[in-house]
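Progress note, sequence design subtask.
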């Protein structure tokens, strides 16, 4: 099993990650989201907003200690949505099922 950073980097290079609040929200609303990743340092309002969106669209959420922005090559980003089901599954498996909120 690889490290989650590796799978996130692959997904980002393949164009299968919507990073940042606006892009992540659009991916979810368009039905493309397969996994929501929230950095631990994201704000309470951002976290609440994306947890609600994820619940609405039936997408799992993971709050992670990873430097999310660095892992996807977009420093400073605290929210990302993986849009590929296979890559989302790999990220979930590498982080661990116990971390998934939804």
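Output:
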């Amino acid at each position: 099993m690889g490290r989650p950073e590796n799978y996130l980097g692959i997904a980002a290079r393949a164009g299968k990650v919507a990073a940042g609040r606006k892009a992540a929200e659009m991916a979810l609303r368009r039905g493309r989201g397969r996994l929501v990743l929230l950095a631990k340092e994201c704000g309470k309002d951002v976290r609440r907003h994306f947890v609600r969106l994820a619940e609405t669209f039936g997408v799992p959420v993971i709050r992670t200690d990873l430097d999310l922005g660095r892992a996807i090559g977009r420093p400073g980003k605290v929210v990302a949505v993986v849009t590929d089901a296979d890559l989302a599954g790999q990220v979930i498996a590498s982080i661990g099922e116990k971390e998934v909120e939804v």
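The chain has five helices and four strands. Work on this subtask will continue into the next period as scheduled.
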